[in-house]
């Protein structure tokens, strides 16, 4: 049985125009990241964290709110912080099935 683990994604949103860094904890230890369903659940959790973290995000050098930029940064950082083998399982589960 997998133990529930947390991915502590410390995101320096200063690059995205926020005044300070924020932290999100995204649980992934209960998911089978090698399956499409597990990767989809992880994506949903990351998206929920990104919605909270990116409410007032700004692109570098801009006064315009840029949530898409911030959300992409949150997802990239969350995946980067996964252990190597889990990153591979996640990436492989995102590939389309060829029959």
Task: Tell me what you see in this structure.
The chain has 99 residues and is of the alpha+beta class. The chain has one domain. The chain has 3 helices and 2 strands. A two-stranded antiparallel ribbon has the order 1-2. α1 (36-53) packs across α2.
Mean of residue pLDDT values: 79
Number of domains: 1
**CA(first)-CA(last) distance:** 32 Å
Q: Rough shape?
A: elongated
Residue share in helix: 40-55%
Largest sheet: 2 strands, antiparallel
How is the largest sheet built, in terms of strand order?
1-2
| Topology as a string of helices (H) and strands (E) | EEHHH
- Calculate Rg over CA atoms: 15 Å
User: Which residues sit in consecutive blocks of at least 5 with pLDDT less than 50?
Assistant: 1-5, 9-17
Beta content comes to 5-15%
Based on secondary structure, the structural category is alpha+beta
The strand count comes to: 2
């Amino acid at each position: 049985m997998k133990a529930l683990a947390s991915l502590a994604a410390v995101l320096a949103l200063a690059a995205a125009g926020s005044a300070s860094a924020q932290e999100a904890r995204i649980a992934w230890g209960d998911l089978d990241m090698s399956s499409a369903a597990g990767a989809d659940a992880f994506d949903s959790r990351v998206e929920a964290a990104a919605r909270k973290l990116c409410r007032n995000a700004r692109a570098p050098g801009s006064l315009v709110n840029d949530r898409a930029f911030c959300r992409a940064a949150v997802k990239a950082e969350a995946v980067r912080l996964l252990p190597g083998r889990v990153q591979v399982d996640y990436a492989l589960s995102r590939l389309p099935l060829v029959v």
